[in-house]
Amino acid sequence: MTSENVDRRGFLKRAGLLGAAAAAGGPVLGARPAEASGIELDIDLGLLFGRERYQWLAGDHHIHTQYSYDAMYTVDRIVGGGRRNGADWMVITDHGHATHEKSSVESTSKDVLAAQRKYRDTLLWQGMEWNVPGAEHATLFFQAGANQAAKLREFERNFDWRLTGTEAGTPANEAKALAAIRWLVEQERTGQIHAPVVLINHPLRNGRVSPHELRALRDAAPGIVIGMEGAPGAQADGFPVPLGNGQGHRGGYGNSPGANSWAGFPAEAYRTYGGFDWSVAKVGGLWDSMLAEGKPWWITSNSDVHYGRGDTLVRPQVPDGWYDGTGKYPDPIETGVKQFFPPYADFYPAEFSRTYVGATRRSYEGVLEGLRAGRVWVNHGGLVDALEVGARGGWGDTATLGGRLRVRRGDSVTVVVSARLASQPNGGGSIPRLARLDLISGPVTGKCDPDTVSAPGTRVVDSFEPRWAPGRHVTFRHTFRNVREPFYVRVRGTDGKRHADGGIEPIADVVGQANPYEDMWCYANPIFVDVR
């Protein structure tokens, strides 16, 4: 592996970060150059990253088909497309809806089983996009064998706000959402279902899931409600003319507060930043405030595909009420003409957004274990081919993404970040260039007010600018010396094309001018450091 640290101090000085870190009383960036240099030979990279244990499997947990009231693809078509784009695992998540519960679930099950037989090297689940009472949407999936359809319908019938009239953001409806989570817990405990997973979708698109709801859902079942979409789907919605309509919002984040929105979110929370949700993109924001509690809360990315940008398929014209009567649209038809305008605002699974899961084996159980453990990083536009993060304590213990490293007070902790630079052109027609990796750290301060949205102690503690060459490995390290209190670290990377003036933070995507290939980021889940 090649070790690089190109003009790190000069870059940070230009960005105004060197003085800011000193003023904050934290580690002065660049004050000890030896602490952010090449890897020492005594660090076992295989052990540190789990390279001998983990396969990094790319996937997508938010996918729609002709069984959704606003989509068109057959299960076979969308799974085949995801497979061609390199997806190892996928979850079919059609919208909760009275017609879906009545007419669609069993038919979807048959199509999923057929796709599983056809694409045997692809791990495929049937789930649903749950309309969460008192909030908005979430991915839900589990395994139930021959009872899969029946259990999905039972959940949908009893706990989806479209079927239960519990949409409004009231305490009673929030309690209904918690009752749904308790149902999943009990169903798993009694062996009715296996390994349920819930991920909050596009969390701040409409501001309808409050910080206290996120925390309550997480705390009700931390092994089930494991995180949220750090970046939403519909990443192609902001393409400018002539490849778009010049009016779309990347990720579909073009909304403003409504009757059911939480009043504490600022106006900027309703936009994406480099394609990522404000809760994640803002250093010291909502995601960091949850990590500062020391509790697992993971991020993912996905396609949320309804209509793939540039596809030549169209949904046939049908009479009004067709879906309500059948629970399914007719198979799409071929036109030979590429479609770029609404509603064609999505990418196919794994075409642009990928969620990489560190699995001990290529299997359903392997992916589930990796997701629940937080061994996850997300990538846009193939910005990097691979990303690994590990931490090592003074006694040689190690941890990787989603893990906990336990050290003694006064020990040193070394964080190692390794990336393999992109080697192939992406859908934008060029090989992406990673411009910078940022190491972000914040103190773990414990339980907080449930509606907290900030973590003032979190900041970028180090940045690295690799020299670019296709397919090259670059590796960096940063050492925290004389550790006194618990903290966490996380990593992000960028192509460096759009930043806040005079700084390095992502900026809001511009309406109708947000080519996703011109502002790409990758994010990794945290590593916690516990001090004893």
TrEMBL record:
Signal peptide: none annotated. SMART domains: POLIIIAc. One of its GO terms (molecular function) is 5'-3' DNA exonuclease activity. Residues 59-134 form the Polymerase/histidinol phosphatase N-terminal domain. InterPro entries: PHP_domain, Pol/His_phosphatase_N, Pol/histidinol_Pase-like, TAT_signal, TAT_signal_bac_arc. This is Tat (Twin-arginine translocation) pathway signal sequence. It comes from Amycolatopsis xylanica.
